[in-house]
Write a structure and sequence with these properties.
There is one protein chain. The chain is of the alpha/beta class and 486 residues long. Helix content is 35%, strand content 10%. The protein contains 16 helices and 12 strands. It has helices at residues 9-22, 56-62, 69-75, 101-105, 110-118, 168-184, 204-216, 218-221, 234-237, 276-299, 315-323, 345-357, 381-389, 409-421, 444-452, 472-482; strands at 26-28, 48-53, 78-82, 140-144, 189-193, 229-232, 244-248, 251-257, 266-268, 271-274, 331-332, 335-336. The strands form 4 sheets. It has a 5-stranded parallel sheet. Strands 1-8-7 form a 3-stranded antiparallel sheet. A two-stranded antiparallel ribbon has the order 9-10. Helix 11 (315-323) crosses helix 16 (472-482).
Length: 486
């Protein structure tokens, strides 16, 4: 029974009709979001180091003559290493169930584990590896839990929960948690391999629902836009011969037949390890997708910051801010901008004064006598005192400046317009153009003038969100527009 998508709408309709009449209708998972850049299944031109966190199912998948994944990855220019039982600091390799991923990626030992993982070059299982180690750290981190993790208790629609162990809700919680570490390492590509299915159908509906959430909702619900995280639905591929997650006819296909939620390829009735046929099917479908994930990751970042994809909504503004010498980002190794981080009042002083006076500007040496909480040797002390000397700020009250406090969007409107027009500038009286900024409210006149000058259009739905923190991506837009940076 053919479930492949056709390039022709007519053929697609005929296929659906045939399946409907036969009683086995394929389900197209909520479509994988189309990327804003072309998908490229071409293998990397240079050898790339990859490490696979796995146990016995992964060992079989890698093995020559069984899953053939190791040799196939090598043929695609990946230098493959792995972990296994007993591997690493504290024998962390023993623990690869879904709830264990927070220990790997979200604990006090994470840096220790990751240092060992990034620098591991051993195979720790048997498969062909003839490529020469290109040196350096592993760039791609592939990780997978084994088939017992498909026995998720609870209900298919359970929300994330910090409580529990192998439940739908706790599994969602775990993946939401570890995403925070992935966001901090845009220089690494993380590939989630879904847990293989069980023959026992007791929790099969939950397993299907959770993996659909991983595929279609996980990153979206978290507002995750970086291209360094991807999911391969190993589970789906192993639930039927016509269930696929693959690249075919120039597009990524994720399709399954409704009701087929258990293992179609077990080793035996008593053994849920995927057999050789299922493992080879997974290899055939995974490797071209891995090439696409890798090329998306490597090809979608700006030439400056690793955490700002070229498709990111504020990418051009961030790049202009960098080119104007206003910022060098939040990290130099790797080069990162931290677009979602809030802007502090200390950082704001630097941003505004550089916008006013240019990237070469250096303020007078701080005296440490202007604000009680800004001693002369404090971060940005000279900038903060000059900010006050130019009449742009009088501090936060009580003789203090509150340098570590985040800047709100209302405060930012005042700072920007005073920086643009001078300390004596007074904006026109507000008329009430934003629903959440009534006339007479704090900074209303300044907020409306900021909109009237085309520097902001608000935060959506007719609102301005005056009490929300200004993030670094928003700040880039405000500065470029206010000071007409090239």
């Amino acid at each position: 029974m053919n479930t492949k998508k056709s390039l022709s709408r007519i053929i697609t309709i005929l296929i659906v009709v045939i399946f409907f009449l036969s009683g086995a209708v394929p389900t197209l998972a909520a479509p994988v979001s189309a990327p804003l850049y072309a998908d490229d299944p071409t293998p990397p031109a240079q050898t790339v180091k990859l490490i696979f966190i796995h146990h016995s199912t992964g060992e079989n998948w890698l093995a020559d003559g069984y899953g053939n994944l190791g040799i196939t990855l090598e043929q695609n220019n990946y230098f493959v290493s792995g972990t296994n039982y007993g591997w690493g600091p504290n024998a962390i390799g023993d623990r690869t169930d879904i709830p264990n991923w927070t220990e790997w990626f979200r604990s006090g030992d994470t840096e220790t584990y990751m240092n060992a993982l990034f620098n591991e070059s051993g195979q720790n299982s048997s498969y062909t590896r003839n490529l020469t180690d290109p040196g350096g750290e592993n760039e791609i981190i592939v990780f997978k839990s084994c088939f017992p993790n498909s026995a998720l208790e609870g209900s298919p629609t359970d929300p994330p929960s910090p409580d529990g162990w192998l439940t739908v809700g706790h599994a969602k919680y775990v993946y939401n948690e570890i995403l925070q570490y992935f966001a901090s390492r845009p220089d690494k590509l993380f590939i989630v391999i879904t847990a293989p299915p069980l023959q026992d159908g007791t929790y099969a509906e939950n397993a299907r629902a959770f993996n659909e959430w991983l595929m279609n909702d996980w990153l979206t619900e978290n507002g995750y836009t970086l291209p360094n995280v991807a999911v391969f639905d190993f589970y789906n591929v192993l639930t039927g011969p016509d269930n696929h997650h693959r690249y075919i006819n120039g597009a990524i296909e994720h399709v399954f037949t409704a009701g087929m939620n258990t293992s179609y390829y077990p080793s035996s009735p008593a053994d849920d390890h995927p057999n050789a046929a299922g493992s080879q099917k997974a290899t055939d479908e995974f490797v071209s997708l891995l090439n696409i994930f890798y090329n998306r990751w490597r090809g979608s970042t700006t030439s400056i910051f690793t955490d700002v994809p070229s498709t990111y909504w504020a990418a051009s503004y961030i790049e202009r801010l960098y080119n104007a010498g206003i910022t060098s980002g939040c990290s130099t190794s790797p080069m990162m901008y931290c677009p979602l981080a809030p802007v502090t009042r200390a950082q704001m002083a630097i941003f505004i004064l550089r916008g006013m006076h240019g990237s070469a500007y250096i303020p007078p040496t701080a005296t440490g006598t202007v604000f009680g909480d800004v001693p002369a040797d404090a971060f940005a002390a000279a900038w903060i005192e000059q900010f006050a000397n130019e009449g742009i700020t009088s501090g936060c009250g009580g003789g203090n400046y509150c340098p570590d406090a985040n800047v709100t969007r209302a405060q930012m409107a005042i700072f920007l317009l005073k920086g643009e027009h001078g300390a004596s500038y007074v904006p026109p009286v507000a008329t009430g153009i934003f629903t959440d900024v009534p006339v007479g409210s704090f900074a209303a006149d300044w907020i409306e003038q900021l909109a009237n000058e085309g520097i902001t259009s608000g935060c959506g739905d007719g609102n301005y969100c005056p009490d929300a923190d200004v993030t670094r991506d928003q700040m880039a837009v405000f500065l470029v527009r206010a000071f007409s940076l090239p």
